Structures are given as structure tokens and as C-alpha cells.
Design the sequence.
């Protein structure tokens, strides 16, 4: 079975050491500046893969490389057997951005936004075919936004806009859907609904889904496999394999880079309970990892911010 | 009615200005929606002020006359010089502030500020160095009499070019206007769209300049779209409103200019501003109860 996305020993740095750096210390410091190191991973057709990792762990870089928006990596990335740029231009990758930075004051209806993505690669003189139009409506339907089709994009709530963005990503019939931090700013109930939405997408379209997040709940809920990325791949397993040890390894790297090698300590029980009450982890109560990494605290701060409310 | 009197008695003097006004208004109306949504108003200012430098060069070459009855070749050469200067300024701003240059240390805002004052200073020095000098007033605020059939021809060609380009690239431009950060991931070449839009703005600005003047040309690129976006949140009505408001503004301004013998550019802009203020009043009183609830 040909993988939808294949990463073959992918490494990336914003400044590769050139031949002039001969001494070991210089090489080592540049080695440390590497954003991704030797990532090998296959995304299989029809699966739902979560990529979990701390901030600064290279998730966004991996996404940009996958979309071909960033060049200069070592190793090989193939999307549907094509180099990323080609795959993107051919509409093989559906992308749902992390932040909604669209101009929500635009005079566009939800339907127009989704049709725009479906027709973007058509020649100027051609309109959408009847069949493509039907597909656009189906995309809106499957994300539960069919009733919003004729509403102005500026009238929608943050959660509704996100659904429309998913429909937009599905409109060009991509082979794989990439979601970047899809649940930042969404409450627990919303996250649950979101996980269900992704399940129904797959059931309906059979589309391969890659969810990238620093939030354990987002990744653990409903994914077939989870890849833990902190500059390099730490584990590659089904969600139940996300033991405290594995997570400690992933998130400690993040902390170690900032504070030096910190050991993982359990936090007071009350605080843990507060953070983990809605966690999908089996042994969440005893998982100290999230607080230790400083990651979860940060993500909560992000959660408290309202998500891209339409600017009026 | 002086307007009818002028138009009927000496159409050869006044009719070209009116026809050019309609063409320029229509061209700018469509672009002004993009300008309003993408917040490009200040870029428009920068581009139009680059015309000072262009006019300075035209003056040195002895091509800076703004009076009526100048030869078509002079007119076209003048247009060419000013246009080249403005395009250079637009591309410079685009280059310095473009996304591809990474985390550039100069914002578009700053780049425009620099280009704007530099070309004004250059234009004034070159103008004073030239023998004939530049009649800055008609250059700044426009002149109906300086608009001949050559200008009408140029406006028609430029307007058609802008319209065809907008039609051909409507999907890319629309996507870029709506969601530039995500557009690249959907296969839109944002850098190309950005440059194309800057060129279209330059074409429209330079075309509008002869009639409305440098200072006021950009107003035509902002006010119709800004007004239309207050009146509707649907694409087709917004475009129609924008077109109607631009044409109404031009017509009202022209009549005012004839009746009161004021500069046409100033009249058109005041008319457009009044229309904008009117739309603002209508929409804000209309939605006020809903906002309070």
C-alpha cells in the first residue's frame, strides 16, 4: 500500500552547517539548531494520525515542509508520490490553518468561500461543473454547515468558521487533510464534537487525516496512531501506547532545551485533577507530564483567549 | 445650468473630461473593493505621490504641460514617464515589504512613507530645475480642460486592461483578498497576485490622475469600495454599489465643478465623501438598535 505521505529521514535546519565549520563544537551547536532530525514516518491511506509535540518541537515546520511552503530539507518527502509543492498545486492536500486570519468582513457567503477553494485551479473561463457543485454542498453537509451556506462569513461564530474552513479544505478533493492545532480555544464539549466530526469525515469521504497538536486530548481522541515529535520522532504508536514515560520523554526535551535537564516531578494532586478532569487518557490522574512540560499550562492560557472572533 | 451650457456649446473642450471621468470611475470602483478589504489605501497614496518624481522628469524633458490642446504624443509620453515612475515605486514597495523577503525589517507602511516623501522632494527639485516648470495646482487637483481625447483613449485602454486582468485572475485575487495566510496552501501564488494588484492600482491611479489630480486620485480607489462595503455584505451587490457610487460621485462632482468653477478632483472627492458619510449614517442608525440589544 503506497503511503499518502512518506517522510524518509527528513531533517531540517534554518541554517545548515556549511563546509567551513570544521570543529566539533561548532558542528554540535548547529546540530542543536536543527529543527527536525531524521524523521521517518509513513501516513497510510485512510488512517487518522495524530502528531503530538511541544511548542518548538518542529510540528509547524513539518507541516510547512509537507505543504511545500518551506524548502531546503534533507531526506525525502513525498505526498501521493509527488514532491510537496506539486502535490499542493494539484490540490492533493487539504489544509486547515491554526488561526483564522481570513478577512471576515469580506462580502462572501459560506458557499462562496467553499466554492472558491473548489474552483481555484480551474482556468478563468471555466465554471464549476454540476458534479463539483454537488461535492461542495456535500462538504458543507458533512461538517454540519449546510444550513449556513447562504450566510455571510462574517456572521458566523468562531466554531462555525472553523467548520467552514474544514469544508473549504475538503472542497478540492484532497487525498489528505492536514489540521494544524484544530482545538486551540475550543472547550471540552467542543473538542468532543470535533473528534466526532473528524470520525464522520473519514467514514464519509475515506480521507486520510493528520492532526497536529500540542494538546494530548486532541490527538488521543479518535486517532489510530500517534507520532510524538520533539525535533525527532520519539514514539509512534496507537494512543494507548502513550504512557507517562513516552510523554515524559517527548515533553522533557522541550523543557530541557529551555531550563537544562529537568527531572519530571508530580504536581500536587489538586492541580492535576483540575487539569485532567476531562482528559481522555486512561491514567490521566497520575500523569504528571503535562504540567511538568510547562506545555499544558501554556495551552490553557491559549485556550482562554477567544478564538478569532469575527472582527466587526 | 452652466453644465449643459458648457457641454452643448463647446463639447470639444468639456466632453472628453466627462467621458474620461466615467471610465476612470468605473475602473477604480472595482479595485476599490479590494483596496478597502486588503487595507491598501496607503499604498495607493504612495503610488500616486511617486507621480511627483515622474512629473519632475517629464518637466526636465519639457513634457510637463497640463494645458489643453497639447499634442497626443506629448500626452502619451507624459503618461508613460509618470506611469513608469509609479510602477517602479509600487514594485519597490512590494519588494521591500513582500512576504517572500522573510521577516523584513521594513514594514510596507514605512516603505511607503519613505517612497512618498522622497519622490515628492525629487519632483519639486526637478520641476524647479526645468525651464517651463510644472503647474503644480492642476497636477495636484486635476483639470477638466487638460483632459483631451488622448486621455480618454488611454483611460479606455487602461480600464479594459484592468477589467480583463481582474476577470482572468478573479479567483486568485478573491482568495488572496479573503485569506492571504492560507491562500498559498491552496495553490495561490500570493506573491504574483500581490504584484499584479499593485500594478493594477498603479494603472488606475495614473489614469485617474489627469482628471482628479495626484492628491485626490487615490480617493477614487478607496471611497466607492468603502461605501459599498457598508451597504451590503454580498459580493455582487457590493460590486454594483461600488460602481454606482463611483459614477454618481464623478457625475455630481463634475456638475459641481462646472457650476461653481471648482477643481473637478476636489468636487468629485467631496461628492464621494458625502456619499460615504450618507451610507455611514444610514447603516449606523439602522443597526443601532440591534447593537444595543
Sequence:
Amino acid at each position: 500500500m503506497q503511503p499518502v505521505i512518506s517522510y524518509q529521514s527528513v531533517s531540517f535546519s534554518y541554517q545548515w552547517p556549511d563546509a567551513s565549520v570544521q570543529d566539533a563544537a561548532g558542528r554540535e551547536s548547529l546540530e542543536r539548531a536543527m529543527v527536525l532530525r531524521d524523521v521517518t514516518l509513513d501516513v497510510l491511506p485512510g488512517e487518522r494520525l495524530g502528531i503530538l509535540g511541544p511548542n518548538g518541537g518542529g510540528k509547524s515546520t513539518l507541516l510547512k515542509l509537507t505543504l511545500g511552503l518551506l524548502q531546503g530539507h534533507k531526506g525525502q518527502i513525498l505526498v501521493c508520490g509527488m514532491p510537496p509543492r506539486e502535490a499542493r498545486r494539484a490540490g492533493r492536500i487539504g489544509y486547515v490553518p491554526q488561526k483564522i486570519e481570513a478577512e471576515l468582513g469580506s462580502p462572501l457567503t459560506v458557499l462562496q468561500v467553499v466554492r472558491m477553494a473548489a474552483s481555484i485551479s480551474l482556468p478563468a473561463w471555466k465554471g464549476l461543473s454540476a458534479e463539483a457543485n454537488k461535492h461542495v454542498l456535500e462538504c458543507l453537509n458533512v461538517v454540519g454547515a449546510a444550513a449556513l451556506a447562504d450566510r455571510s462569513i462574517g456572521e458566523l461564530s468562531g466554531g462555525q468558521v472553523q467548520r467552514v474552513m474544514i469544508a473549504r479544505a475538503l472542497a478540492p478533493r484532497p487525498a489528505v487533510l492536514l489540521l494544524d492545532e484544530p482545538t486551540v480555544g475550543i472547550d471540552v464539549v467542543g473538542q468532543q464534537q470535533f473528534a466526532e466530526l473528524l470520525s464522520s469525515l473519514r467514514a464519509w469521504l475515506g480521507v486520510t487525516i493528520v492532526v497536529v497538536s500540542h494538546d494530548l486530548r486532541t490527538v488521543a481522541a479518535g486517532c489510530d496512531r500517534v507520532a510524538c515529535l520533539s525535533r525527532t520522532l520519539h514514539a509512534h504508536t496507537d494512543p494507548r501506547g502513550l504512557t507517562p514515560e513516552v510523554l515524559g520523554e517527548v515533553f522533557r526535551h522541550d523543557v530541557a532545551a529551555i531550563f537544562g535537564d529537568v527531572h519530571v516531578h508530580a504536581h500536587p494532586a489538586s492541580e492535576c485533577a483540575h487539569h485532567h478532569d476531562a482528559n481522555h487518557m486512561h491514567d490521566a490522574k497520575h500523569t504528571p507530564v503535562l504540567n511538568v512540560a510547562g506545555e499544558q499550562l501554556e495551552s490553557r492560557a491559549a485556550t482562554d483567549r477567544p478564538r478569532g472572533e469575527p472582527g466587526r | 445650468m452652466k453644465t449643459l451650457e458648457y457641454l452643448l456649446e463647446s463639447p470639444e473642450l468639456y466632453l472628453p473630461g466627462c467621458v474620461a471621468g466615467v471610465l476612470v470611475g468605473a475602473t477604480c470602483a472595482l479595485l476599490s473593493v479590494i483596496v478597502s478589504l486588503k487595507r491598501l489605501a496607503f499604498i495607493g497614496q504612495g503610488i500616486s505621490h511617486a507621480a511627483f518624481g515622474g512629473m519632475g522628469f517629464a518637466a526636465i524633458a519639457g513634457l510637463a504641460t497640463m494645458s489643453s490642446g497639447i499634442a497626443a504624443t506629448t500626452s502619451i509620453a507624459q503618461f508613460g514617464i509618470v506611469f513608469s515612475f509609479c510602477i517602479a515605486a509600487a514594485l519597490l514597495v512590494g519588494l521591500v515589504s513582500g512576504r517572500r523577503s522573510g521577516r523584513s525589517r521594513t514594514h510596507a507602511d514605512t516603505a511607503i512613507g519613505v517612497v512618498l516623501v522622497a519622490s515628492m522632494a525629487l519632483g519639486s527639485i526637478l520641476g524647479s530645475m526645468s525651464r517651463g516648470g510644472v503647474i503644480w495646482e492642476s497636477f495636484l487637483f486635476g483639470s477638466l480642460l487638460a483632459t483631451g481625447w488622448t486621455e480618454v483613449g488611454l483611460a479606455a485602454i487602461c480600464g479594459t486592461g484592468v477589467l480583463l486582468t481582474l476577470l482572468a485572475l478573479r479567483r486568485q485575487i478573491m482568495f488572496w483578498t479573503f485569506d492571504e495566510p492560507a491562500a498559498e496552501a491552496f495553490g495561490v501564488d500570493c506573491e504574483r497576485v500581490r504584484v499584479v494588484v499593485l500594478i493594477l492600482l498603479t494603472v488606475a491611479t495614473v489614469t485617474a490622475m489627469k482628471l482628479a489630480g495626484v492628491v485626490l486620485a487615490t480617493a477614487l480607489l478607496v471611497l466607492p469600495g468603502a461605501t459599498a462595503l457598508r451597504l451590503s455584505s454580498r459580493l455582487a451587490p457590493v460590486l454594483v454599489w461600488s460602481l454606482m457610487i463611483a459614477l454618481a460621485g464623478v457625475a455630481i462632482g463634475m456638475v459641481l465643478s462646472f457650476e461653481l468653477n471648482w477643481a473637478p478632483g476636489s468636487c468629485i472627492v467631496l461628492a464621494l465623501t458625502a456619499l460615504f458619510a450618507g451610507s455611514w449614517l444610514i447603516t449606523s442608525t439602522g443597526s443601532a438598535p440591534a447593537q444595543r440589544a
About this structure: The two ends of chain B are 49 Å apart (CA to CA). Confidence is low (pLDDT under 50) at residues 288-293 of chain B. The interface with chain A takes residues 33, 37-38, 167-172, 174-175, 177-182, 184-188, 229, 232-235, 237-238 of chain B (CB under 8 Å).
